[in-house]
Amino acid sequence: xxxxxxxxxxxxxxxxxxxxxxxxxxxxxxxxxxxxxxxxxxxxxxxxxxxxxxxxxxxxxxxxxxxxxxxxxxxxxxxxxxxxxxxxxxxxxxxxxxxxxxxxxxxxxxxxxxxxxxxxxxxxxxxxxxxxxxxxxxxxxxxxxxxxxxxxxxxxxxxxxxxxxxxxxxxxxxxxxxxxxxxxxxxxxxxxxxxxxxxxxxxxxxxxxxxxxxxxxxxxxxxxxxxxxxxxxxxxxxxxxxxxxxxxxxxxxxxxxxxxxxxxxxxxxxxxxxxxxxxxxxxxxxxxxxxxxxxxxxxxxxxxxxxxxxxxxxxxxxxxxxxxxxxxxxxxxxxxxxxxxxxxxxxxxxxxxxxxxxxxxxxxxxxxxxxxxxxxxxxxxxxxxxxxxxxxxxxxxxxxxxxxxxxxxxxxxxxxxxxxxxxxxxxxxxxxxxxxxxxxxxxxx
Amino acid sequence: xxxxxxxxxxxxxxxxxxxxxxxxxxxxxxxxxxxxxxxxxxxxxxxxxxxxxxxxxxxxxxxxxxxxxxxxxxxxxxxxxxxxxxxxxxxxxxxxxxxxxxxxxxxxxxxxxxxxxxxxxxxxxxxxxxxxxxxxxxxxxxxxxxxxxxxxxxxxxxxxxxxxxxxxxxxxxxxxxxxxxxxxxxxxxxxxxxxxxxxxxxxxxxxxxxxxxxxxxxxxxxxxxxxxxxxxxxxxxxxxxxxxxxxxxxxxxxxxxxxxxxxxxxxxxxxxxxxxxxxxxxxxxxxxxxxxxxxxxxxxxxxxxxxxxxxxxxxxxxxxxxxxxxxxxxxxxx
Lengths: 445, 334
Fold this sequence. Notes:
The structure holds 2 protein chains of 2 kinds. In chain A, 54% of the residues lie in helices and 16% in strands. By secondary structure, chain A is α+β, with helices and mostly antiparallel strands. Chain A has 2 domains: 2-46 and 230-442, Orthogonal Bundle (MetI-like fold); 74-215, Jelly Rolls, CATH 2.60.120.
């Protein structure tokens, strides 16, 4: 314990180690935060959700903060509704059970790019007589554009760009640019726009509510993907998954390798022979190809892949290296003494052989974490990621299959890639520092 | 079996015709011969008896010792301790046998695990022998550290072996051997790695402990000059056989076997006259233990070798003096 504490104090003398530790602690913090605020079931529901969950978001939208770095300002998305009282709603009763519902929302549009789409989601309740609405848009130059009039069902979605009549009226194929610029102009008109919806209900208990969604060009902190999903979800949930996979795989591999090497070296004979032959066979087996086979034919669950990774990584060159050292330690006088005072074989393996190797174990354990994190991401990229879990690798795979780089959606790949790099760098830098601390002591092994 | 046993009740350890052979294999399989490290050794030790096993490197004394400790399995022959034959013990009884035998090693630095502190080192045998109570273990550790004159124990308990001097390390090794209150101590050249100034102290300590607890001690050495400190009998070993057994004083004053004579002559004392004197050393080297010479194994180097006898038949133990046995045809009763 003392040596571990000393090592930690020494660790703080390396600036790179402090940076690595900060990265690791930050990642652990983010992982804990994510798992508390977005429970697993909720994350899965959102990640697997389609249009009904993500209808408020634009597709292929870069993160909103690119506006700070870009001279062109991209329109930001928003969603407002009468339920949260962001849309002004006024009900005026009229003659013979009718009522007039006036709803209006004013928003500031001062961007250089047109939004993707505008939508109204109406919900109404009635027995027989459908409510009727008419929509108008008030532009900053005080034009009033009549958009549409129609009767509503219980639920009704109105999409600006899909309205044939509006297209005909505006004499254009692209409705949104026409609405957001002066006639015969190609640039967006900046200023305050107002949507005005006048509805009429024809029954005493009839209600009328609506939600107004504007799909801009940018969205949120991380942007969205092809399925309108907010990328913060997989980016955040990727942290605990990557850490868990990396840590479990690397700890499982290192510790099991060490135990198996120690058992083989201690018992010798056919046990040792068996372990060595398994290792030699495993060394010539193609690791990735085996994982692909397991993923394709058996299961892509992350736990199955994790187990297979650990199993295949145990019997590698490391087992030979450890065995070589154990064979040497096995002959030392203190092991002979331990046998003479009656220590059992398991006790010798776990209390006499393995403690000698702990200094060698710790740096290699930390250094091998990024390799496993990358492995998980690589498997996801080639389509063998867990089909359920939101991970960094899944983002890259989605981006790749949607031609993100070809179409210029760089954010989609750069976000998970940079997180992968920071994670790898953090653990690697920490591992290098640990190596420098523990290795001088290894000379007497 | 020529050793007389008047009071068999007191016999603690008896070795009967012990053979320890190591198989030699070629390319990992196929036996091509064996190293006959111990080849027909018999002796008996009474309770409280001290004996020195003397011989040069490679004569098989370490193999003999490891077999007595139960670390080697004998090829044939019996090791009987306190009436129990080691080869017939099950695992549990073998463990309790190990608690009754203490082992003091040659190099104290490598005999102590470097990653354990003194408390852990001394606690290990107690934990293994089933002392569950931590306070009792600490009591026994303090007691045994007092026995080996490491005062006060608290100064040492948290230290690691490399922080101690060679003499202190050897005291810890002795304490570890003593902590289970064994009946038999096997000391394998316990002072050969120590400074000359510390040697005598360690030997005196062992002697004091032996007397206090009436221990049986097997003291293995190649250095005859340290033997007289506490062993009552000397066994001289050559090429896997015990060639001479006798009381210390009698054997040192009147060595019978030609090899013992040569060994004694080679023992150096710090005496200025020795610088000029030429010591007669037997020619040649100890024989290969894979193919030992036929007959007496010393005969190719022996100046008294009798052709037709020494190179044909292995000599039995003769007893030219009472309680002084020698395996040499020179002492064949006429």
